[in-house]
Amino acid sequence: MSVAPPTSAFETLRKDIARLEAGGRAPGGVLPFGVPDIDARLPAGGLQLGALHEVAGGGNGALHGTASALFVAGVAARTRGPVLWCVTRADLFAPALEQAGLESNRVVYVEAEDEAAVLTAFEEGLRHGGLGAVVGEVARLSMTASRRLQLAAEGSGTLGLAIRRWRRQAEAADFGQPTAAVTRWRVTALPSTPLPSKPLPVAGVGRARWFVELIRCRAGACADFELEACDETGRLALPADLADRSSSTPAWDRRAVA
Amino acid sequence: MRRVVSLYLPTWPTDRLRRRLGTDAPSPETPLVLVGRIGRKRVVVAADAASQARRIRPGMAATQARALIPDLTVHDHDPQGDADGLEQLALWALRRYAPIVAADPPDGLVIDATGATHRYGGDEGLLDDLVETCRAVGLTARAAMADTWGSAHALARLLARPALVAPDRGARLITDLPTSALRLTPDIVAGLSRMGIDTVGEIEAKPRAPLALRFGPELTRRLDQAFGRTAEPIDPVEAPELIQAREVFAEPIGAPETLARYTLKLAHTLCAALETRGLGALKLDLRFHRVDANIEVIRIGTARPIRDVRRLTRLLCDRLETVDPGLGVEIMVLTAPVVEPLDWKPAAGDLATPAAADVSDLIDILSNRLGGRRLYRLAPAQSDVPERSSIRLAPTALPVPERWPKRWPRPVRLLPSPERIETVALLPDQPPVSFSWRGVRRRVRRADGPERIFGEWWRRDGERDAVRDYFQLEDEAGERFWVFRRGDGEQPVTGDLTWYLHGLFG
Fold it and tell me: Residue ranges of the UmuC domain (chain B) (predicted)?
């Protein structure tokens, strides 16, 4: 991990001074994933704070925004401070977000009437500056709207995370349009990590595994990764059969037997 | 469209007396009347429900009432006290419901609820809340909501139950009401009756000039007010204890920048007034008295008491665009109806521990713009049933120490209600081999479970024996689902073994 989020008031001060020196534009920090393969592909060595990032799901995951929501929850969990989560449909299940490391005390939900209100709350949250991350679930994100969000994020140094989630498959075409987001990801569920065989008639469900595509990255190249989903601290991991060690924790084994 | 609520308290003088006497008050079954003097006669001025049930009517001679009920409790009527009490009630309604409230003597309140109902889940919610709260403190109350003060007033008094009138239907409903619904003096009502006019609709059908000639301008004025043809501004309740700042303009103003400039000026004055008393505002009303006698109003609420000029101005100016200055604004009044003591918190003495970020200003901005109930935090509730396992907290509530159990995986999206699925399952204890949901058939490759969740008999009788067995299923593509089967597979009483999909994992 190269740069940690600020842990003391001195570092906050240092950051403030750096911001003053940068002439009003927040230099922003970097939030590394802690997975060397991904961090090496990102120009700053991690997700840029003070910027807008877009995450969509693949296939049905795009309609329900499941894997993308967990991916975003894992990222938000590793920031500091409160998180604002703006939705139009209140179908998020908070216990699952806690299992991805995002403590419920930190999250303030905004249940907006429509997408325009989501974008307003999203932008207001980014502009405020006191939040760790702002998450917005939107189907459409125009160039103008995304540029506004990106500028608000740059100004305050807050991490903006847009979950692109559709009501109908037909709206997926909008994801092809360019936006001002710094990175754009697509997260698709893969069959889970196989568990050691057990004397059971069906195989148990292992730790969720994702196919994570970095579709767009400003000043960087596209890439794709096969990863294991967030653990209870929001961290991703390389699958055990790809890395040289077993990453499935004993807890997951126990659960599979129960 | 204006939404005016009229609250009618049919037995206000006796209810007020009972409340004032507290534990010494006679029981509700004891007939109680209040007696006042008209000339040299002592007459019943107010009678409670129990005495009205025994044929005592206001206006009856006191001696006659005593003759009808020997054990009658009699108190003196206190008209000034009733009027003052109504003013106090209006102030309470001002704090609780809407920025424009006035006493409607002798026995009611009028509330301009335009744009204030969303906090109570709509028009009906506000009416229910109003009537229920009055009932809880011992006031008999009826309420109606309509487009005009006149029609709401008539409907609250002459319709039996709390009435909610859809916009622009008020006029049709009041045409069938008797002429006394129009807030006319008794001799006008009697005069109309002598002419054979008994309902509002009949007055409406007559030519107006002869009526005006005979009864004066009062009759047509009340008629026009009830039908919304002339404006009837509500003069909001004022009280010396309300902290307020006021700005009167020599020339009417209307430009948005001018309004914003004076908003800032008023916020300065108000904050200074709050500071001398050591208070912070929880609610603020900014009223714009227009030259055409209408009043436009902005109400904002804050999560914590504040008296920060910049923050208050920001919150108010955010809503300025909703104000229609019409031909101009003559007076601007900024009041703080709800205040709380505000004391300074010492700054953190330790530089090394960073202070928690304060986002209450952001929460104020968003909840004033979107509506207060749209912002919330979620916290664990005492229940294993998934749809009941979280409760909503206010966004500024203190952190809660409780955690959801981490042992079992939970889906990131929970369907609003479980959806029925068709399954192929081998044995009662086994997860399904395949299932179809929303028309797509999926083969189950991996599964986990069951996690048994029992019904909560203390909430509903139907859940006494209910059992749900939850499974986590993974299909060939790697998508993971949370399904459950009703029943434990042994005893039919626990459920009918149908399968439902309840959530989606990521």
Answer: 30-152
